[in-house]
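Entry 0007
Protein: Signal peptide peptidase SppA
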Amino acid sequence: MSDDLTRPDDTGEGRAEPTRNSRSKEEDRWTQGPEVPSGKRASQMPGAPDDDAETLRERQRLAQLEMMDHWIGGVLTEQRRSRRWKLFFRLTVLAIVLVMLFATLYSLFWDSPSVTPPAQRHLGIVEVNGVIASDSPANAERIIKGLNRAWEAESAAAVVLHINSPGGSPVQSQRIYAEIMRLREQGDKPIIAVIEDIGASGAYYIAAAADEIVASPVSLVGSIGVIYAGFGFEEAIERIGVERRVLTAGENKAFLDPFQPLDEEAEQFWQSVLSQTHRQFIEDVRAGRGERLSDSSDIFSGLVWNGEQSIELGLVDQLGSLEQVSRNQVGNTDWQDYTPSLDPFDRLTRRFSQVVAEVLGVSTPNTPLRY
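Output (structure tokens):
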């Protein structure tokens, strides 16, 4: 009976089994050995649990060497990248300098206009494209040079001003007008103005000197007037609390200062300047067009008309195109452009200056008056 009581049965009841914690300690060798404080354990590099202190120090030294190699590699990579960027910028600057040098040499030696014009009869074209101003492609010096080239070409049956411009500087327009009138008085060959999209204000001033004006039925023609446009900021500057400091020698030197009010006397004076300039404009147009102009008072009011209306007012002689003029003069559509080519270097620097002026907000015309 006692043997039965002390002997475990087949089901295992009464057998003493080890607990989960004691079994995990026996199986996990990482928990064996003396306990290391948490701070010391964090400072040591991971390794085998039975590594001694010398092995751990060696592992730590190797890890430090590896970290140093990685850092040195990063520094060398950054230096190589920096050298590449320096080389890139140097090559870019060198390329720009070479392009400018080539453009200058090209304009001086290879891009000069042909001395010998075409042998067959043709139209001598001079382009008047864009705003007429001293710092634009449509400047007086360039156009006058083209006029003389076309005029002197013996095979050029006629000189044609190919106009597509809204006008511009009164001085530049007057210079071109005077040169056309000088050539016109010689009477060797006709000078014809062909207006494309627009021939207004200073551009019409130039066209009025020609022997004949041709325009499309939908071309914009006219705008015989003078304009000055500005702003008044006197109240704005007071609101933001800015003090304007202007020193002049002459009581009216700053009468157009936009930060000062324009008094009645100054306004009357400036209006007289505009009126006198307008009168000069009218006189030159009448001298160029003569009796072809109608008696309508609206002609010199600054209004613009299309080509068909301009015929009725005497501002245009006939409706047509450059191709029709060429067929009438030489029997075919054959023409030669005598406008001097633009200097690429000058074009680049001029465009850069214009962009900088526009970005800085200091882009202003050479003259406050505009045709």
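Curator remark: Residues 120-227+292-360 form a domain with the 2-enoyl-CoA Hydratase; Chain A, domain 1 fold (CATH 3.90.226.10). Residues 53-110 form the longest helix (58 residues).
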